[in-house]
Amino acid sequence: MNKAVRIILLDEARDAFEKLNFIVGKQVEQKRENTSEMQLLNSINQKISLIKSNPFYGDNLKKELIPNKYKVQNLWRVELSQFWRMLYTIKGDQIEVICFILDIVDHPSYDKIFGYKKK
Asked: How far is residue 9's CA from residue 17's CA, in Å, rounded to a whole number?
């Protein structure tokens, strides 16, 4: 029996997603097409669908690399368009799997979260 998979956007991820949706909505009203925001929103929606089909779709980060700010036992990374990243954790029980999207960030923010420095 396959478990149901639920996707929940938390805090920063939800805020980023809602802000992006608002921006794209305004762009659609202005009859703009194929903007970078539209591409990013499409990329996020596509990756969420892939995660819903396979919660283990992303890259599983080593436990020692997980930043303390997330307070999770596992962390997965998905690459989005324009070098953005989506970070999520997986929790589950005997009935369902829940993927909590923790963050949707641009590459400089991602580097800062993980302590990467420019060369």
From this structure: 8
